[in-house]
Amino acid sequence: MQIKSEKQLKELKNYQPKSCLVSSLYLNTDGSKFSKKEVEVIFKDLVKEKKLEATDDVLQDIKKMELYITQNLDIVKTKGIAIFSCSKENFWQVYELNVSPPNLFVIDKNPYVRPLFVIFSKLYKICTVIFDHRKAKIFEIFGNEIVLKEEIYGETPKKIKIAGYRGYDESRVAEHQINKIMEHYKKIADKLLELYQAENFDVLFIGAKPQDINLFVERLHPYLKKTYGGSFNLPIDAKESDILRKSLELQMKLEIEKEKEIIEQLETHANSETSRMAVVGIKDTIRALNEANVNKLVFNLDFTYAGKYCPSCSYLALKEDKCPKCGTNLIRESNIIFKLIDVAVEKGAEIYPIFYSNTLNQGIGAMLRHKGIMKTTI
Ligand SMILES: [Zn+2]
Question: Is the dihedral of CA 70, 29, 114, 311 positive or negative?
Answer without folding.
Answer: positive
